[in-house]
């Protein structure tokens, strides 16, 4: 429920923040990126009245909070330059090098993916998928999330309909991406920041309805917290116990569930207690202590996501207990490390912390981006595969696609801006059949980014494809079978030719 307010910072403060977790960061690069961004955005102001450069600094500072590498910090500073200044990508490449330029390019490209008011589930899935695939480098997604997080905090300065559109996009695209990246805290905050813009009436209703319950729950939590601290100290367990209030938006979603039926008394995790321990074994000891003091609620059960982590890596033990007066609260138990991961679990952060603990990582290798040993890289890739599968599953027409989707697929746009994903090597004919059978059958020529191309032209990521048709054409050309790559196009062409 609590959204961290972002304060304006200076380049010196940013440098200090980076130094605190990575003394050997490439500070020259970061300073150079700053000077470049400052020049690019000279005199530019945001609608809030604050200079654009301070938005760049805030974005970069969030990335530093999440302990990203120097290239990401530099790209965070430069993320709006290509879009909003006359600086070209070439210039950025020349000044700060290829890897930072590539990140800026990625951020600029995914920035062009707009929802355009269309909110069908399928379209949103396409957008999320495209986002991941076009960015290729996950750091691009993370930079976009940082950028969006700050933009959401200054939404009140935008015209109402524009603000609503951005908030909607945040709910549909960015918050789910944050969740998939395992950044639970950011997901919750993005949702809460969007809530009042997208569903203003419900927001006011929930806020008013829940206020007294939150207050009461807070008092109870404090009492239980003290009791637990004493009991756990008796067991010589070193723990930290915090209360956490449920995010507003997620409370609202829960209230809408049929079994809850808008009755807040049925929501048991309005407030939860979080016990943070040093070691995994301590989690189970703490669970025993909790259950000795407060009886567990049998029908709600204990959920052990330490033994069996959630797909996004989340680990914690959750239990619901009776407080004695009939009330129920949720208690979450996890190690400090699991907590860090759950709140800000961006790849680098978690792996860095782990590796640092084991002294396997030098600051230098952090900065070279060698975060991952080959084995850990595998974990990361597997995780990506999970998201990819999750995202792809909801899209029926490409359910045969395997994990190579990330690398082997391209995204192209119709002249209206609709996105289509195709395998690498796809041609305008593949595109035409992906749009509509009739468009394929009648295809006579194609334009890519406004220029005529041949029908066997090899499409590239991000291109806008327009198919020119011949209305009198009855069936596709057999020759097309020599170059089409999608099963769909092959099947349709085959049917028309054989079926006559
Ligand atoms: Mn920005």
TrEMBL record:
Ranges of residues in domain TGS: 408-469
Function (record text): In eubacteria ppGpp (guanosine 3'-diphosphate 5'-diphosphate) is a mediator of the stringent response that coordinates a variety of cellular activities in response to changes in nutritional abundance.
Pathway note: Purine metabolism
Bilayer-crossing regions: none
One Pfam family per UniProt: HD_4
InterPro entries: Beta-grasp_dom_sf, HD/PDEase_dom, HD_domain, NT_sf, RelA/Spo_fam, RelA_SpoT, TGS, TGS-like
Family, similarity comment: Belongs to the relA/spoT family.
Name of this chain's protein: (P)ppGpp synthetase
NCBIfam families tied to this protein: spoT_relA
Superkingdom of the organism of origin: Bacteria
């Amino acid at each position: 429920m609590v959204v961290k307010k972002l304060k304006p910072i200076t380049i010196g403060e940013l440098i200090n923040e980076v130094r605190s977790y990575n003394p050997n960061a490439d500070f020259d690069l970061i300073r150079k990126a700053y000077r470049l961004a400052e020049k690019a955005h000279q005199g530019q102001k945001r609608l809030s009245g604050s200079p654009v450069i301070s938005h760049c600094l805030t974005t970069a500072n969030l990335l530093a909070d999440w302990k990203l590498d120097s290239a990401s910090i530099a790209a965070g500073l430069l993320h709006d330059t290509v879009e909003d200044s006359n600086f070209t990508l070439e210039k950025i490449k020349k000044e700060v090098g290829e890897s930072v330029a590539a990140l800026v390019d990625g951020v600029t490209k995914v920035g062009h993916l707009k929802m355009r008011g269309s909110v069908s589930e399928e379209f949103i899935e396409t957008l999320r998928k495209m986002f991941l695939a076009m960015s290729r480098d996950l750091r691009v997604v993370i930079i976009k999330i940082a950028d969006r997080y700050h933009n959401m905090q200054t939404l009140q300065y935008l015209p109402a309909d524009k603000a609503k559109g951005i908030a909607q996009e945040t709910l549909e695209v960015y918050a789910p991406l944050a969740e998939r990246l395992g950044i639970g805290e950011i997901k919750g905050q993005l949702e809460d920041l969007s809530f009042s813009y997208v569903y203003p009436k419900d927001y006011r209703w929930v806020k008013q309805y829940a206020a007294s319950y939150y207050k009461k729950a807070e008092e109870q939590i404090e009492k239980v917290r003290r009791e637990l601290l004493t009991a756990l100290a008796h067991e010589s367990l070193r723990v930290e116990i915090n209360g956490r209030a449920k995010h507003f938006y997620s409370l609202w979603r829960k209230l809408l569930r049929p079994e809850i039926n808008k009755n807040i008394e049925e929501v048991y995790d309005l407030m939860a207690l979080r016990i943070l321990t040093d070691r995994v074994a301590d989690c189970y000891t703490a669970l025993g202590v909790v259950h000795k003091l407060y009886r567990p609620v049998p029908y709600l059960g204990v959920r052990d996501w330490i033994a069996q982590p959630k797909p996004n890596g989340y680990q914690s033990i959750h239990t619901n207990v009776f407080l004695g007066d009939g009330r129920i609260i949720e208690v979450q138990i996890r190690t400090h490390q699991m907590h860090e991961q759950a709140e800000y679990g961006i790849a680098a952060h978690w792996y860095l912390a782990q590796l640092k603990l084991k002294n396997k990582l030098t600051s230098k290798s952090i900065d070279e981006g060698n975060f991952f040993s080959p084995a850990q890289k595998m974990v990361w890739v597997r995780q990506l595969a999970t998201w990819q599968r999750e995202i792809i599953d909801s899209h029926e027409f490409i359910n045969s696609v395997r994990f190579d989707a990330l690398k082997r697929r391209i995204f192209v746009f119709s002249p209206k801006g609709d996105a289509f994903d195709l395998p690498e090597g796809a041609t305008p004919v593949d595109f035409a059949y992906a749009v509509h059978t009739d468009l394929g059958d009648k295809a006579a020529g194609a334009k890519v980014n406004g220029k005529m191309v041949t029908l066997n032209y090899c499409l590239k990521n991000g291109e806008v494809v327009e198919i020119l048709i011949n209305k009198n054409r009855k069936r596709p050309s057999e020759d097309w079978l020599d170059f089409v790559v999608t099963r769909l196009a092959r099947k349709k062409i085959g049917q028309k030719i054989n079926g006559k």
